[in-house]
Every structure is written in C-alpha cells, then in structure tokens.
Amino acid sequence: MAHSSAAAARRRRATGPAPSLTGPASDVHPVLRRATAPPAALDLLAQARAGLDEATALDTPNERYATAHLAALRTAAAVLAARGRPETTPRRRARIRSAWEVLPEIAPELTEWSALFASGARRRALAGAGVQGAAGRRDADDLIRDVAMFLRIVERMLVPQPVLPQPRQDAAEPGTRRPGTPRPGHGPRPGHDPRPGNGPRPTDGMPDVG
Fold first, then answer.
1. Which of 32, 61, 82, 178 sits at 20 to 30 Å (Cα–Cα) from 95?
2. What is the CB neighbour count within 10 angstroms for residue 192?
3. Which residues fall within 8 angstroms of residue 189, CB to CB, at 6 or more apart?
4. What is the tens place of the pLDDT at every residue in 129-185?
5. DSSP for 52-88?
6. Beta strand 31-32 with 162-163: parallel, antiparallel or unpaired?
C-alpha cells in the first residue's frame, strides 16, 4: 500500500496538476477554431503580408505604391480562394473579370474596399511601368496604410483565432467582498457580543486589575 501511494505521488509530481476546466483562463490552454480557409488562401495571405512588409521598406514612391497594391490584390485573391464559386453560365466563364469586380459578389462586406483598390488599379499599372510621378509619396503612404487595415480584416475573416475559456462568474474580483462579510472598520466592537439581545460582556467597564 505504501509503495503504491509513493508511486502515485511521483506521477502527480511528474505530470503536474490537471488544468481546471472551470477556473481562470490562465489555467486552460487556448483552443483553436476549426480552420475555414484552404491552404491556397493562407498562402496568398502570407504573400500579401510579405509584400506589405516589402512595400514599407522601399524608398521610391512608385515601387511602394505598386508593391502595396499587389499585396491588396493577393489579399482579395485569398478571399476568392476561400469563398469563390465557379461561374454558372458559359458567357460569364468566358469573360475575364478583375478580382475587384468579383470580390463584392463573394464578400459583400468588402464592397467599399474593392471600390477603393479598383480606383487605384490604373495608377498601380503606371507606377509598375516606371512612369515618373505616377504615384507620390503621400499616395504610397496612404495606400500602405489602407492595405494594412484591409489585410487585418481579411485575416480575421479567414484565419482561425484562439478561443479562451471565460473566467468563472463566481470568482470574486480583487477589491470586492462576499455577501455577509463585514466591511473594514465595521465589525463588532471588542468586548461586544453581536448576537441579538446580548449587550456587553460582564467584564466590560470593569477596572483593569493588571
């Protein structure tokens, strides 16, 4: 019996305490939601992130603008890869449409973003061709900021996020007191019996003989 108890104690020390399923969130490891994006979409998001980082590090406004706009295009392509549907009619299948035209049909919540980047497609073509003054420094800075926000929105849509368990509702927060607990400085006086109908103890009011 003693041998089995010692072995159990060693196992507990080796494995550590089991995580609490109802305790604070720090006791439980985060659980990932099931992935909703295929590998192709995740790869496009990674390329878009790398392209945005590259655009930020470049110096020439034309290069910054063209590289950032390409990152936005790859971000849109990731949404199409995750949610895209095949064309249903031969006419639509034969017609080549830009990603900015298809994106509002697949993700209506991104319609305004699609219009924003579609309006910069011509400038991006000129900047990519090296046309002098096609994009100014302000144009490139604004586009990089917009693409960064667009990429974050799409990543939240497609990339699984960790889900942390909620803390227990009955856990007392710091600085709060439980019901029935006296406030500091409001407890029974020394020598006073708090029970109803009981006054001071007989020793109250007597001189100190010590």
1. 82
2. 13
3. none
4. 999 999 999 999 999 999 999 999 999 998 866 555 566 665 555 555 555 555 655
5. HHHHHH--SHHHHHHHHHHHHHHHHHHHHHHH----S
6. antiparallel
